[in-house]
Design a protein that fits this description.
Blueprint lengths: L1 H21 L3 H6 L5 H29 L1 H21 L3 H13 L3 H11 L4 H29 L6 H20 L19 H8 L1 H32 L3 H30 L2 H21 L2 H29 L5 H29 L3 H32 L5
Length: 397
């Protein structure tokens, strides 16, 4: 089983490394085709839009046919998408490349399903999902630096390398990865309506609360990502290089936190519900700290934010998956990815609009969203505890 985890970890790492190669360079590359700032933003949104449409469907297909074929198809689609993007000679082909990558963008969610399949206990499930965050940390630390070096050989080179990495990943997955879904349901009907998994998830009263919490968490995170560089430039005069350093700092913290501390400290000393609520509370305070606009305060809360959001991401995701039926875990994981993509479509527009009004306003919005999430989950936890207590205490006669 340890070998399977290593293979999945490396699969995700190579995938994220490829993404890290191109993300810092993509706006400049698209700009060479005469794209306006709005169109440049649209290249990020169109990927999220089609990933939102496809992720729940890919998750359901992995429940029906298995994780392995879905992951292989997703990796191959990513490779073709990057090749089209690198070799494009017009805007239409650029959009086709991003759309194809979005449609087949089930790499991470399917890898999460793999790790859930390998888990024997809820604690192990959370630990395994932490490996995904560890891969993201390494990939986004190494990827931008390597991409910057490769761009000196030509601005299309990082995209071509990302495509070849995804193609190598596809071949490796085909020959190395086993099938781990032992609950495949070939008779199951898969709906290609992207909203149906959301409707199905919302029908479960307990799951509904945590799906909404995950969406709200995703909204707050996306606000942070969309205005981070703009804020530190406007407030502190930092350029893109300093922004890269700060993002690397966050990546290192996420790597240490999800790769080591989550398993060896947080899950050993605290219950998951406590970690969830505590992380939400720290995120609320961190967003408020960002809005103050004092450099040392900003850096302090950036570190706290990196710790709290990386714990919350894994713990919440793990608990949502734990509530899902055995033959629907892939669909639910795809649903969480779809909700994250939905937030990535909407919130950059809202964050950018608020930033133009007042540069501190996006942080207040993010803090408000997380505070509402904290209150909602806290109420749900207390209701569940009271219901459990009432069933355990025998009635008096």
């Amino acid at each position: 089983m340890r070998k399977q985890k290593i293979v999945i970890f490396l699969t995700v790492l190579i995938d994220v490394l490829g993404l890290g190669l191109v993300v810092p360079i993509m706006p400049l590359y698209v700009e060479k085709f005469g794209a306006s700032p709005f169109l440049i933003a649209a290249f990020f949104s169109v990927y999220s839009l089609f990933q939102f449409i496809a992720s729940p469907v890919l998750g359901a297909l992995s429940d029906k046919y298995g994780r392995r074929p879905v992951l292989i198809i997703s990796l191959f689609g990513t490779a073709i998408g990057w090749f089209i993007f690198a070799l494009a000679n017009n805007m239409i082909l650029l959009f086709i490349g991003r759309i194809l990558d979005g449609i087949t963008g089930g790499n991470i969610s399917t890898a999460q399903s793999y790790l859930v399949d390998l888990s024997k206990t809820p604690k192990e499930r959370t630990e395994n999902l932490g490996l995904i965050g560890m891969a993201f940390g390494i990939g986004f630390i190494m990827g931008p630096a390597i991409g910057g070096v490769l761009s000196h050989f030509g601005i299309t080179v990082p995209f071509l390398v990302a495509g070849f990495l995804a193609l190598f990943n596809t071949i490796a997955a085909y020959f190395v990865l086993p099938e781990t879904n032992l609950n495949k349901d070939h008779s199951r009907k898969v709906s290609y309506n992207p909203l149906k998994p959301i409707v199905n998830g919302m029908k479960n009263a307990r799951l509904r609360v945590f799906l909404i919490a995950w969406l709200m968490f995703s909204m707050a995170i996306t606000v942070q990502q969309s205005v981070f560089t703009l804020f530190i430039n406007r407030q502190f005069g930092f350029n893109e290089t300093v922004a890269g350093y700060l993002m690397t700092l966050v990546g290192v913290i996420v790597l240490i936190n999800q790769g080591f501390l989550l398993r060896r400290v947080w899950l050993k000393r605290f219950a998951e519900p406590f970690l969830e609520l505590a992380s939400m509370a720290v995120m609320v305070v961190s967003f408020i700290g960002f809005s103050i606009g004092i450099l040392w305060v900003f850096i302090t809360f950036l570190i706290l934010f990196a710790f709290s959001h990386s714990v919350l991401r894994v713990v919440t995701n793990s608990q949502i998956v734990g509530m899902a039926e055995e033959n629907k875990k892939g669909e639910v994981i795809g649903l969480t990815q779809g909700l994250m993509s939905l937030a990535s479509i909407i919130m950059p527009l809202i964050g950018g609009f608020l930033f133009e009004i007042n540069i501190h306003a996006p942080w207040i919005l993010a803090a408000t969203i997380m505070l509402m999430t904290f209150i909602m989950v806290l109420i749900e936890r207390r209701l569940v505890s009271r219901a459990k207590l009432s069933t355990e205490i025998p009635p008096t006669v």
